Fold this sequence. Notes:
Elements: E1 3-9, H1 16-29, E2 33-38, H2 52-63, E3 69-71, H3 74-78, H4 84-94, E4 99-105, H5 106-109, H6 118-124, E5 127-131, E6 147-153, H7 159-167, H8 179-188
Parallel strand pairs: 1-2, 1-4, 2-3, 4-5, 5-6
Helix pairs in contact: 2-8
Amino acid sequence: MRKIGIFGGSFDPVHNAHIEAAQQAVAQFGLDFVIFIPSYLPPHKLRLQASSQDRLNMLSLAVKNNCKFLIDAFEIQNRRIVYSFETLDYLQKKYYKDILKLIIGSDTFNQLDEWEKPEYIAEKYGFLVMKRPDVIIDLNSKYRKYAVFSEFFMKNISSTQIRDMIKNNAADIEKLVPQEVLKYIKEKKLYGK
Length: 193
């Protein structure tokens, strides 16, 4: 029986904090591997900047050299808003002998009541919570008993910050995203004005 971390997100674009968080999750929680799930359209966002194909391509470039990282395009292939409980149930059928745990940031942990069926996810799967340096974890949360918290703090990088930096030519993003992803963004002229 393997232990698998499920890491969903828009990855618009994928950045070094995503990759580092997944690496830390493997090391700290003893995961056999992490499955990245790029969303078609997250329930809390009106739209994404890069196309589904571009986000999938960037994610593929970012994880290609790590044998512990996989990608499943289930949500993109559904071409609709897919809730996390649906994705987890789909993956549990696919990996029916294995234990699945949802990897989330501490900011997301504090907002679980805004999700669809958070109690169901908590009880059936549980959470591996990666700490963000700018977020105080709600230790009174009813989901705390279903969560394991990392000792590691994620780098304070966001996809929004990266997109804004590109749009405003504010600074070079080469230290924020994997090199192959940076090359792809430049070649495709993503996130420009």
